[in-house]
Amino acid sequence: MKTILVTGACGQLGRALQEQAASSPYRWLFTDIDTLDICTKDALAAYAKANQLNYLVNCAAYTAVDKAEDNETTCLRINSDAVRSIGEVAVQAGFKVIHISTDYVFDGTNSAPYVENDYTCPVSVYGRSKQTGELMLRAVCPEALIIRTSWLYSGTGANFVNTMLRVGRENEEIRVVSDQVGTPTYAGDLASAIIAIIGCAEAGNFKPGIYHYSDEGVCSWYDFALKIFSLARIRCRVIPVDTKDYPTRAVRPQYSVLNKRKIKQTYGLSIPHWEESLKRMMKGLKA
Question: Which of 32, 65, 100, 166 has the largest CB neighbor count within 10 A?
Fold first, then answer.
């Protein structure tokens, strides 16, 4: 039985993988900072050796985008240096790496969905740290597989959906940015995709490189908020505003739609539309 380690297992994607692991034919190990510090290379190497890893899915990351502007050293240590260490240990120990990255490696100036070899030009500390992590990983472990995703959400943790559910019930009116466009991604969908990729790898079809994964469709944060409120039957009024009228510490990409053709063709994935996935997730909250 093949052994898969998921780091950052207490995050949204890590929890989604935990939920789906029981129905897959693998031995799963789940760690977070309290059980394995990926920033300590020796500890990572010892863990890999002791558990004879076949795969490592790195969901660990510093994701506080605005706080990263004032905590660049910590952000780089987790999102860049630790990722390089994972790649180095993977080569030494002989396991495959699936690393999760982000749409924030782009500057958001495209007018068509980003493909994997488009020029990366991040506009925030967080984005730069993730870009550097990608570059370091590919340099030391060319056989790694990197998945860039966008607008991740789930029923748990800090994310846009849970924030909207809270503020929508607490206020009669809120303002939401309408000129930033992308695609929401349900963590459960990405978890299913990762498990499918591992299945392909076990069947002899593992093709490393950079891939894009989000749910299908396109929307603004404003559109996303409207749909959340509609499904939750929340009567809060949503006012669309421009980014300039809603300043944040870190700059966000204004357009971050990802082209998923490569991952769909390579691994035979069928990707649901974001609205259908949101409905499914919201039904789960009510259950």
Answer: 100
